[in-house]
Amino acid sequence: MSTGEQQAEVDEHVSKEIQDSYNALKMGPGHGDIACKALTLAFWDFKKPSICAVNGLAVGGGANFALANYHDHVLVSEEA
């Protein structure tokens, strides 16, 4: 999917206000943040407790997202 196609899909489903918030953090489509640095920093500054549930594979970036440093509490099923 090209960047233009991604943006068209985002425009269809996500309000302009939310898009502007993500773009201010350099997290919108086309910012090329492959390492998810902006997302990591946003979660570190998140003011409310964050809970994650894993019920399947968590490998590569998914494992980092679920287990490394994003959430305050992670629940994992026996099937994960």
Short structural summary:
This protein is mainly alpha-helical and 80 residues long. 45% of the residues lie in helices and 10% in strands.
**Helix count, per DSSP?**
4
| Strands, total number | 2
Instruction: Tell me about the largest β-sheet.
Output: 2 strands, parallel
Order of helices and strands: HHHEHE
Q: What form results from the Cα inertia axes?
A: globular
Q: What radius of gyration results from the CA coordinates?
A: 15 Å
Structural class: mainly alpha
Number of domains: 2
Proportion in helices: 40-55%
Query: For the terminal residues, how far apart are their CA atoms?
Result: 29 Å
Query: Please, what is the average pLDDT?
Result: 76
Strand order within the widest beta sheet: 1-2
User: Hey, roughly how much beta strand do the residues contain?
Assistant: 5-15%
Describe this protein's structure.
There is one protein chain. This protein is mainly alpha-helical. The protein has 2 domains: 1-32, no CATH class; 34-80, no CATH class. Helices cover 45% and strands 10% of the residues. The protein starts with a helix and ends with a strand.
Spell out the blueprint of helices and strands:
Blueprint: H1 3-13, H2 16-24, H3 37-44, E1 51-54, H4 61-68, E2 73-76
Parallel strand pairs: 1-2
List key phrases describing it.
80 residues, mainly alpha, 2 domains, two-stranded parallel ribbon, 2 strands, 45% helix
